[in-house]
Design goal:
The radius of gyration is 13 Å and the shape is globular. It has a domain at 27-72. It is mostly helical and 72 residues long. The chain has helices spanning 12-15, 40-47. It starts with 11 loop residues before the first helix and ends in a 25-residue tail after the last helix.
Amino acid sequence: MSKLYISQNGTIEEDGAGMLEIDFANKYIGGGVLGRGAVQEEIKFLICPELVITRLFTECLDDNEALIVIGC
């Protein structure tokens, strides 16, 4: 089994190279990023605008579904 490393220092945007980021938020990918949303998921989409493209081809996620985005 792989070792797990958890750090509370720095930010994932500046110090998170090679780390996995998980967002548990809205069943609609991006939440309210194109509206008035301003919480974790929407902020992530504004920091990484390449994520917005996922809204074009991702339907509403069911409770047993996940979207994995690599390289953003």
